[in-house]
């Protein structure tokens, strides 16, 4: 097209000028929706189940450990020790549905929810490229457990051998270890008497001495000691996690509490094995206890 065909025109102004400030204000007032949370709804539910089932089971555990660990090693009359044990056992076995819901139900829910969380998080778990890189490890990192010896002496954190070897946290590992130990404990002290008598009403503190001194004595002794230490670690570490107590000071307190409970448990095991009573196969209870123990496969 030639320039002669072009016609020059004057610009026509708009009736109202554009308010650039208003445009800027409107653009800045646009609300950007937050990104959607893609975390499955099941994970928060499993976390709540795991939390409250743990608290429920700890209520039973506190009563039980008091009656079989703390009270038996006190310098008081043996009849009082038996009475405390009998009262604690009456709470578990006499209150309607207490044993089914508070003990079995809460423990089963806790285990199942823990396994479910483990499966959901397995593919999402982020690991540092260097397991010993202290700069990438924080107080709330579950791979360090309670910090170990390096934390006690102020040398910083290192990921635990369990985490680097098995790919699970020390808390999870202790939970898996508890399952066979508790199952064996239940078998010896609850199932075997129930299988023969229909209940375990005859079981008292003397029965512990029979278990630790008759059939496979050292196996039962090591099993009971392992149960005490493992439960002590799992409960203390787990409660600290639920309460968000992650700093170094709380980790040291946790280690001290675990060692205290474990040490009291060892004293109690020694008391039942060597000092509690003479294991006799005569008398009504003696014959019943021997029958329980000799009939079990372990």
TrEMBL record:
Record keyword Transmembrane helix present: yes
Keywords: Membrane, Transmembrane, Transmembrane helix
Superkingdom in the source lineage: Eukaryota
Signal peptide as annotated in the record: none
GO BP annotations, alphabetical order: lipid homeostasis; mitochondrion organization
Residues annotated as domain Mitochondrial adapter protein MCP1 transmembrane: 60-160, 180-245
Key word DNA repair present: no
Residue ranges crossing the lipid bilayer per the database entry: 52-74, 101-120, 166-187, 207-232, 253-272
GO cellular component, one term: mitochondrial outer membrane
InterPro entries: MCP1, MCP1_TM
Name of protein: Mitochondrial adapter protein MCP1 transmembrane domain-containing protein
């Amino acid at each position: 097209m030639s320039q002669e065909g072009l016609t020059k025109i004057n610009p026509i102004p708009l009736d109202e000028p554009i308010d650039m400030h208003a445009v800027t204000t409107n653009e800045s007032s646009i609300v950007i929706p937050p990104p959607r949370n893609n975390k499955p709804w099941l994970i928060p539910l499993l976390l709540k189940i795991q939390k409250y089932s743990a608290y429920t089971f700890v209520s039973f555990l506190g009563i039980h450990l008091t009656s079989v660990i703390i009270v038996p090693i006190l310098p008081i009359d043996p009849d009082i020790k038996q009475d405390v044990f009998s009262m604690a056992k009456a709470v578990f076995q006499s209150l309607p549905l207490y044993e089914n819901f508070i003990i079995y139900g809460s423990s089963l829910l806790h285990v199942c929810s823990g396994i479910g969380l483990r499966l959901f998080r397995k593919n999402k778990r982020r690991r540092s490229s260097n397991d010993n890189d202290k700069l990438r490890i924080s107080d709330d990192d579950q791979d360090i457990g309670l910090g170990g010896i390096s934390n006690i002496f102020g040398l910083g954190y290192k990921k635990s051998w369990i985490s680097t070897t098995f790919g699970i946290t020390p808390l999870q590992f202790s939970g898996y270890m508890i399952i066979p130990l508790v199952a064996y404990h239940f078998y010896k002290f609850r199932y075997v008497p129930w299988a023969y008598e229909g209940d375990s009403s005859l079981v008292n503190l003397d029965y512990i001495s029979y278990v630790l001194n008759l059939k496979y004595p050292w196996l039962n002794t090591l099993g009971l000691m392992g149960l005490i230490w493992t439960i002590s670690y799992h409960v203390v570490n787990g409660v600290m996690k639920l309460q968000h107590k992650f700093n170094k000071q709380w980790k040291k307190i946790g280690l001290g509490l675990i060692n205290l409970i474990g040490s009291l448990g060892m004293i109690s095991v020694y008391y039942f094995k060597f000092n509690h009573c003479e294991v006799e196969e005569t008398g009504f209870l003696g014959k019943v206890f021997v029958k329980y123990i000799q009939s079990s496969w372990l």
